[in-house]
């Protein structure tokens, strides 16, 4: 039975079903990370600790996993087409149709939640509707906000303050452009050298703690080294994924989906690792995850297959909701965090029911948007823009 996504683009190659499922698992872990991020921050500020919930302290590394998956899937889907007359225009058309409808929806939801929150920055100052609309316009066209700019409407120095995670799509688009312009032309040997150099730069960046944050959670702002950190954060996994797609040979692994999911869960749950001498130990851990473990997970996941109707449906569902869930959930986190501050709720145990409601609501909305917005809009755009 064909997946919904495959129906939209009938000429696409078959999906790696387990990779679709793993993308969904990573999106769920990001959701859990962001729901509990507020508790972690509030608890730290107010000196309240809560051991009643598993904190995915490294949940932001899911973005790096997404980039590796994107590189692998794009290399697999398009590398062999360029010699058959495939054009840059067609590539960009396909990528925009695949990604931008949900980028637009995420921006609209971001505006709605910001207005519902009262149109105020975190410092309490009111934001005129005109600036909110300017922020919407810039998000729709992926124009990032500089820290302190008028359309940084939340005042957090985010590139896209109506929908923070849109920063990764900004870099994804840059990666798409670089792939179409020159990366697809590289031989496998040259691509391997480029990937190795980028890997060494990534290891240096994280282990030297170049940003002074003790983590690789960079790219979401244009402040300091964040832009170049974001570029590096996209470029290594992106090229690594493309390299994997070229040299990939399946290895038989029993229970590949569950094994890979468990490894990701355990890695994300590792506590922050203290220590900066002679190098940042947390940076070493994150570099090892991105450079070694995530490519291995993609390799094993691509080697596996679903074995029955139930596992196929699970992976299909997770793959279907993965991108919508990632790109629409964070505006609701803004509301959730504001509610926590207003009601002085600092621990998960103080309102576990609300956390469950927030997560379940986001998952349900992501699926509804996939079925009744993303899928039909992409199908319509594909029909309208395909050259006869």
UniProtKB/TrEMBL annotation:
GO molecular function: acyltransferase activity
Transmembrane domains' residue ranges: 59-78, 98-116, 128-146, 166-183, 190-207, 227-244, 256-273, 285-302, 323-341, 353-373
Keyword Cell wall biogenesis/degradation: no
Segments forming domain Acyltransferase: 19-370
Record key words, sorted: Acyltransferase, Membrane, Transferase, Transmembrane, Transmembrane helix
Superkingdom: Bacteria
Protein name: Acyltransferase
